[in-house]
Amino acid sequence: MNNLPRERVLAAAAALRSLVDQPLKFMEVCGTHTVSIYRSGLRALFPEGLSLISGPGCPVCVTAQEEIDSLLRLSEMKDIIIATYGDMLRVPGSSTSLSEARAHGASVRVVLSAADALRLARETPNRTVVFAGVGFETTAPATAAVILQASRENVRNFAVLNLHKTVPAVLETLGADPELSLDGFLLPGHVSTILGLNPYLRLPEKYGLACVVAGFEPDQIMAGITLLVLQKKRGIPAVQSAYPEAVRTAGNLQAKRLLEAVFEETDSTWRGLGLIPRSGLRFKAAFSDYDARVRLGISDLPAREPAGCRCGDVLAGRISPFGCPLFAKSCTPENPVGPCMVSSEGSCSAAYRYGRGDRL
After folding, report:
1. Distance separating alpha carbons of residues 355 and 151, to the nearest angstrom
2. Residue 349: which domain range?
């Protein structure tokens, strides 16, 4: 951190000390925010009474155990190639992982994008490529674009195991939880570039929650937290953007049109939070041929969570990574028990790498 952003962070910390005169609890719901907060040691600068907890901001982590198991069952099928992002390889299923399945002969390829998965299907016409569609509104438009492209080109050996989830409904679930008793959200930056601000308006209107979108650098995060505190102090909760260079009120209209063309809302199961209404995406009927569950007859079955793992409680904000009895003991990045220690955006991974000291 160079001197100017550092000075801004320290100035914001001083401002917070003068502003905070009651207990306040906010939640950040973006994996990139989580990593930046741990890496820079921002929590060490907060005044007494101000707490920031990590929520379900890691898309790989919130993918339910039964969804991971469905992906693993697909990898066992003849003439199937699984195309997936690298973070998914080491996520433990109920009995194995994609990495272990690959070591035992399953065809699993790491791709950087949904477009790479479609390209792989074109190059291997005698096998079916199944893309693991993981992520929030940030990555779902790219999946939608690829489905439209596959349909135009009539690529028949391509399918998607659709694991996409959407953010606004889960924020309502968390905001309404009396045990969490949140005062507001540091809203996700990447997701908000797609959604804009309007989908969050129910949070202040219905639940009285302060909401601010912030950038990802430590000084930008501190600016966002300062706005959250000011909203609470003034008693006027709202949705604000401290990231105007990237987040427009209406969002990314082209990306939203792609989502609307291919997907419709559905209920979805989140690790640690259970089934949340209207928090997922499913293919519209016109694109059901590209739905791996329909094409290959796969359904999610009851799954067994890793013994002792409390990743779900971390994602739900019930505990910090340090509250899990496995953290930094039997569960490490080299030997992960749950996905929160696997993903580069996982809270446990970030806490393990950066959270045991002030990094500012």
Report:
1. 46
2. 311-354
